[in-house]
Specification:
The complex is a heterodimer. By secondary structure, chain A is an alpha+beta fold. Chain A has a 4-stranded mixed beta sheet, covered by helices on one side. The N and C termini of chain B lie far apart (about 40 Å). In chain B, helix 5 packs parallel to helix 7 and helix 8 packs across helix 9. In chain B, helix 1 links the parallel strand 1 and strand 2. Chain B folds into 2 domains: about 80 residues, Glutaredoxin (3-Layer(aba) Sandwich), CATH 3.40.30; about 150 residues, Glutathione S-transferase Yfyf (Class Pi), Chain A, domain 2. The chains are: A alpha+beta, B alpha+beta. Chains A and B meet through strand 4, helix 3, helix 4 and helix 6 of A and strand 4, helix 3, helix 4 and helix 6 of B. Chain A: One of its GO terms (molecular function) is glutathione transferase activity. Chain A: Keywords: Cytoplasm, Transferase. Chain A: Homodimer.
Chain lengths: ~240, ~240
């Protein structure tokens, strides 16, 4: 049994892993995980990951969670081009520096609009306007740091070449973009970076990866988006209550 | 100028970096940054870390933020024993997995538990609603259970049979609610045994030295009005 990746393309870290594997020609079996049908809460999935989360990598008997760990594992095992996870001491440190800050300021922040604009209404939950506003402020502040501290004069977040950091960031930012937020107004550096990453991925891979997330609003309007099944509701409501 | 480490031992990630550097005999200049005095907001410190957080590292012209980045940089540059951050693909992945998980899970609940139980009421004189504290402690409990069930399991250490940077990051986090009086280890014999092992590996003296400041925080006098004003805006988020 070869490499298996448990993913759902609605999820930002899943997309980062998917793109990385595809872009680098890493052979894998895509195990699409139906999040809204309660697959993460199933007994079978619990055997794969007791944290009931995706992405998950299964390489024979070896199971690995956490997208950054998965990306680093894949880059080492399949010996991908150096720029993804540079062997140079300082260049590599910059990637970890970004990933650390990303965990604090990007993850958990940029995913919120999908919850407040799409999932909450679908689930009959309401998110107070002040939380929506607080989230916008947090995203604003984070994007300022992205431009000033990380991009600076560089083409990419951790240097002049694309790395794992750029994939992680790009996918998180895609989430609010998909629900109609304009993250780019007045941010020319961010626009340039975004275009560079998109160009690097290529339009086929871009379409393939982002079809689901970019069509989400349309699906909801046309009632084509699967309403979450009952067993998922407690998790959804818990997640929504954690929005601060 | 050699390696400089900008630290406040009141901070969990700073303690992990401190213990790691000392344990491995890495020579460095300690540059104290007092968080409770707002020193991390100074313009001088922003030159070292524009993100205005500790820990931060300065190695000649190279500045670096984020504790995991710093730990991995030091482990590679100073060629520390392999077990701290193993070369083996799968062994290293286990460390990476823990370091990633803890950042968005355990870290948050340990910081909030310590601040809501102790810093807000005692130091800042601000009451924390009982439901908020209860919810935080429940979340801490949940994370501790995951630490035991998903990571530690039947192993001696968090990422495998040997101590690694994952254990340093974990133990320094857990000492945060401990400093506020939370009985983290009392009802969890597995975690208590692991703590003993980590302390033994690190060395009791070094462990106590790293934790001296945070263990004394409960005895700090209440902050003066000026300090309260300075700190309150940035710590409000810890009430949520």
């Amino acid at each position: 049994m070869g490499l298996e990746l448990y993913l759902a393309l609605l999820s930002q870290p899943c997309r980062a892993v998917y793109i990385f594997a595809k872009k680098n020609g890493i052979p894998f079996k895509l195990c699409t995980t139906e999040v809204f049908k309660g697959q993460l809460q199933s007994k079978e999935f619990f055997q794969i990951n007791m944290l009931q989360k995706i992405p998950v990598l299964k390489d024979g008997d070896f199971i690995l969670t956490e997208s950054s760990a998965i990306l680093i594992y894949l880059s080492s095992k399949y010996q991908t081009a150096d720029h993804w996870y540079p062997s140079d001491l300082q260049a590599r440190a910059r990637v970890h520096e970004y990933l650390g800050w990303h965990a604090d300021c990007i993850r958990g922040t940029f995913g919120v609009p999908l919850w407040t604009q799409v999932i909450a209404p679908l689930s009959g939950a309401h998110v107070p306007e002040e939380k929506v506003e607080r989230n916008k402020t947090a995203m604003d502040r984070a994007l300022q740091q992205v431009e000033n501290k990380f991009l600076g004069d560089q083409a990419f977040l951790t240097g002049q070449q694309m790395s794992l950091a750029d994939l992680m960031a790009f996918e998180e930012l895609m989430q609010p973009v998909a629900v109609g937020y304009d993250l780019f107004e007045g941010r020319p550096k961010l626009v340039a970076w975004h275009e560079q990453v998109e160009a690097f991925l290529g339009s086929d891979l871009f379409q393939e990866t982002h079809g689901t997330i970019l069509n989400i609003l349309e699906q909801v309007v046309n009632k084509k988006f699967t309403k979450p099944s009952p067993e998922v509701y407690p998790n959804i409501l818990l997640r929504i209550s954690r929005i601060h | 100028m050699g390696l400089e480490l900008y630290l406040d031992l009141l901070s969990q990630p700073c303690r992990a970096v401190y213990i790691f550097a000392k344990k491995n005999g890495i020579p460095f200049e300690l540059r104290p940054v007092e968080l409770l005095k707002g020193q991390h907001h100074s313009d001088a410190f922003a030159q070292v870390n524009p993100l205005r957080k500790v820990p931060a590292l300065k190695d000649g012209d190279f500045t670096l933020a984020e504790s995991v980045a710093i730990l991995l940089y030091l482990s590679r540059k100073y060629e520390v024993p392999d077990h701290w951050y193993p070369q083996d693909l799968q062994a290293r992945a286990r460390v990476d997995e823990y370091l990633a998980w803890q950042h968005t899970a355990l870290r948050s609940s340990c910081t909030r538990a310590m601040w809501q139980k102790m810093m807000f009421p005692v130091f800042l004189g601000e009451q924390v609603p009982p439901e908020t504290l209860a919810s935080t402690l429940a979340e801490l409990d949940r994370c501790l259970q995951l630490l035991e069930d998903k990571f530690l399991k039947d192993q001696d250490f968090v990422a495998g049979p040997h101590i690694s940077v994952a254990d340093l990051v974990a133990i320094t986090e857990l000492m945060h609610p401990v400093s506020a009086g939370c009985q983290v280890f009392k009802s969890r014999p597995k975690l208590a045994a692991w703590r003993q092992r980590v302390e033994a590996e690190v060395g009791k003296d070094l462990f106590q030295e790293a934790h001296a400041a945070v263990m004394k925080v409960k005895d700090l006098p209440p902050a003066d009005p000026a300090t309260k004003e300075k700190l309150k805006p940035s710590v409000q988020v810890l009430l949520q």
